[in-house]
Amino acid sequence: MSEIHTGIVVLAFGAYTLAIVLVGVYSARYARNSDEDFFLAGRSLGSWTAALSASASSESGWVTLGLVGWAFGSGVSAYWIIPGCLLGFMFNWFVLAGRLRQRAGELHALTLPDLFAMHFRERIPVLRSLTVLVILVSMLLYVAAQFAAAGKAFAATFERYFQMLASSVFHSGCEGVDYHVGVIAGALIVLLYTVTGGFRAVCWTDFLQALLMVVTLIFFPLLLLFREGGYAYIFGQFQQDATGQGLLSFIPPFNTQAQTAALIGFLLGHGALGINFGYPGQPHVLVRFMALKSRREALVGGIISVVWAGLVYWGAVTVGLMARAMTIAQVPWTGKLLESATSKELGLVVSALHMLPEVLSGLVLAAILAAICSTADSQLVVAASAVANDLYARLFEKSGRTAHLLVNRMTVLVLGVLAVLLVINRDLTVYEYVLTYGWAMLGASFGPQVILLLLWRRASYAGCLAGMLVGFLVAVIWPNVYDEAATGVHVYNLPLAFVCGLVANVLVSLMFPSRHADAPDARHPG
Questions:
Q1: What ranges in 356-460 are assigned the alpha helix state H?
Q2: 292: three-class secondary structure by DSSP
Q3: pLDDT at 81 over 70
């Protein structure tokens, strides 16, 4: 890529990034000096803002980088991700969202720990503290993966500039400096407007980022298909690939005697239906439901969200398939996608840089950053609220609102710095890291508990505590003890941990019912 080309890409990307930061900072003018406004934007979100910001916050760099890379390696079976995710979207919006908004409003709960503690009238903050701990650990890993995605995207686009920076600062080339500078740049962009504007800034910027993501992931794959001859080109190249026998199969071939078990493992894996188990337990998504203007906004928001998600997933998978087909055809610039085990995640970045006009290339990079920022900022706000509202305000200082806001801003900064330090290793695979750890830990810990709290009147305090602990531990331990290579069967930790957490909650709730749970009554259905 020429110097002029790169310069125009930088200008286009910089203009978009500046606009997003300014929107985030400007939103601070409308913020009131209250915890409810910083954490829930005063419960004022309409269906469009809530739907697009919730959608963008749940679909991070794992879509624009990770899912593209997954499709590159898996072939057409990657399309299973679409029903897998849409089931989760529909359940969240059409079953949980309205009920959660109503219950949170009745309790005046600002956060997920608030919801659990207030619903069960907790006196000693054991459940609240456990919820905060799970959020902090999971969000740290999740945010770290977003910054890793930013590092990869920036490194692929601005490698030459980053190397020049290293040469001028250190008077020599520094291997990997392009990735590390990219991680820091992405972190600084997110932290700037998140610290300033809080949840309101996050929702406003996520709304714009969601629009850019869907436009990019509709028109760019359509352009690729039009230029290269549609799916016939993809299938034709896959048929010529001697090493990719499973690329054309919607059900990949299993090299194991346990064919049935392997099929079930695939369908319940993170590349198919298993991913939807995580949606009911993502605090950065659930908080949008709590911030809705009213329960009625959930229906329209759900329709918007499901349509948006279907388009984005289709686009990401299609770009990955097209990048793989072009690699098989030995298109010169595709060699970069084969440089390392994780290079395949750069399919969207590299193809846009070589196949689009300069300004549009910059906007594609901006869309990738939008996906990263829209998740990282939401997660940082949720983590900050857990510390400021659920630990500091509840356990230490109950009156100083200004102090609470200072604590949450400091939490955002500290978590941001720690997340950057966690992703020094550039070989981290964003797709696997997000879905195996951050997504799975949150989904298994909170999903069953939220569902039972809202839908089952006999859910108890002890059951919620047991279910959360079991779900979290199984999600963390399973990937480190299960030997998939020995069995040939993939067992995704999220569905397993989710079921374990759900069963634990039900059994313990039946054995130890709550006497003082503030459960909804006939006057407050749902």
A1: 358-387, 401-422, 430-433, 439-455
A2: strand
A3: yes
